[in-house]
Structure of Fe(3+)-citrate-binding protein YfmC:
Amino acid sequence: MTTRTTRRSTLLATASAATLALLLGACASGTDTGDSGGTSGADTNDAGTRTVQSAFGETTIPADPQAALGVYTTDLDMLITLGIPLAGSQPIRSQGYTTFPSFFDQDALAGIKSFENFPEYNYEEILAAQPDVILNGLGYDDELVTKLPDIAPTYSFNGFDGRDWRESFAEVAEAFDRVEEHDAWTARYQAKVDDVKARLAEAGIDPVVAPVGYGDGEIIVSCYGTPCLVFKDLGLKISPLVEPEEGTTLGTEQLEQLAGIDWAFTSTAPDEKTGELDDPFAELAGNGLWAALPFVTNQNVAVHDLEMVYGSPSGQYAFLEVVEKALLP
């Protein structure tokens, strides 16, 4: 995910009396977005709130939220996994998506309306959802961190700071007093990892794998996001092309450097009309260097939903299932 988002210039140029009342009530919550490092435990207050520390300072959130909103889909997935009741409408990203990712818990989303909130933020729709708390993982955007508490108490963190997303997830679970739910997901995920890993070992399957992307005439092999986390959890060999900090970018005349990869995993957004995942490498079909690569010849290319990359419980579990299906058909 890029941090170069298109930002809204103002938060509601005009507002009705009801809207102003809602904003004033939210501002009275005591939310503080001042800078502070790290996170810590929470204090439960008599007024049904919890005072917690985030990377952006002390903030007060409901002890028992009933209408939570996730600013990005990864935030929404965390809320669902932690069993926190949702506001009646929730954001999705606009690029290729018309609804929530298919691998999310659809039962938890039954009756929930969606609205586009990325890459351009839709403060009006966030306000209209009437959340009693907001989870914001886009903490890299100072404007967003500053404005959201004017709508509802907000817990912000930077979910795209290069850390394993599971560290942020653990901090969110602690802040919302949902450690038990966090631990239940962790145990479920680990059990699946152990099962797949054992079956790979039993079958003697030990390929070299890599996340491989294509765009603007270039191939990018990079460990950005969840794929390499899953590969490492499974003990798979990862192509050394991912080792530079930004991965390796290759022109179409350099494709022979991919010859050491046995399985390529690539992401794409669903087609807006069909919802299907198209072949991201279709433009390379006539390239002889590409056609000669072993993973192309053997049809060892697994295409998965782009939203799995960005770090959330359902995304990581779903990508683990993509790897399982590819390597253990």
